[in-house]
Each structure stands twice: as C-alpha cells, then as structure tokens.
Design a protein that fits this description.
Number of helices: 7
Strand content: under 5%
Shape: globular
Oligomer: single chain
Helix content: 55-70%
Order of helices and strands: HHHHHHH
Amino acid sequence: MNQDALRSYDYWTSLLDQSHLMASAAEVHGLIAGLLSAGVNAEAAQILPVLYDFLNDGQALSNAAKTEISELIAQTSASLAQTDYSFALLLPSDDDSLPERLEAMVEWTQSFLVGFAIQQNDLSLCSEDVRDAVKQLTEITHIDVFALDDNSSEDNEESYFLVLEHIRLLVLTCFNEVGQKFAKAEVQNKTLH
C-alpha cells in the first residue's frame, strides 16, 4: 500500500478543518504510525482515545471523522506490515512548496515520536537499531524548514526526498523490531501531556 492508497493530504486537511480539529494531517498520521510502531494494536478502539486527547482535548470526534480516521488506522497498519516496504508518510503533494512539505515532514516525525513514546517509554528495552532510529528521527525534528540551502532548487528537492526516504526506513525499523513483536492489548498512557 502506498501514498496513492491513502486519501490525499488536502482531503485530510479539509476533514480536520471541518471537524474543528487543530492538528495537521501529517500530525494525525505520524501519531498513528508511532503508536502502531510501538506495539499498539491496530484496533480503532485502542488508538482513537489517544487521538481524542491529541486532537480534541479528550472529547470524541464526530462519527464521520471517527470513521475516516479508523480507516486511516487500518490502512496505515496494513501499509507498515507490507513486505515490499511501500509504506508512505501522509504529506503534502510534490506540487506544494518545499517549505510547506518540510514543515509537514517535521510535524509528522514529531508526532511519530510522541506516539512511539506513549507505548515505548523505556528505550533501554529496545534494540540498538531502534534506539538509533529514534535518535535520528529526533535529529530530523530539528530541521529548520525555512533555511533552504543556497544550492539549486533541484538539489533542495533531492535532499528532501533523501531525508523522506530515510524517515520511512527508520519508521519501518521501529515497526518491524518493536511494533510487530510487542503488540499490546492496551495503550499504557493515553494522556499526551
């Protein structure tokens, strides 16, 4: 399952705006991927309460938003589990400006780390590969999205796609080593404070 199987970033932005939710589509997808990669079962009943805290101050979402997000959870879980490594981050399209895509990529990564930390809060229990992946993902969150290199826009685009691919592989490392091995029945801590 790839990016084309997910609804577009613009679709999700519109849905979240219509539902009066403050998170971006990148943040929602990153949080879901982080929870799944940390071992939370791909059941909407397990993940939705965390999303309620994250998106809506603990209040349930509208039925329409809940249905769509439940489908996103299922799609994300299936995509992460694919053996062809086709998992894709839900980000703005290549037609959007590079700073906008970079900002969404950083938001996605930050939210992934939050989701991962909710369930896996003791990295000493994780392999060195996973600890290194979390460290590298944390470093990516420090990218200055408005400080583009003075090189050509083509070089900046290439750098963006290299970082994006690196994030994807780091996420798959976390999912394959933790998410698939340590799936738990319940989220340990639903509060994101």
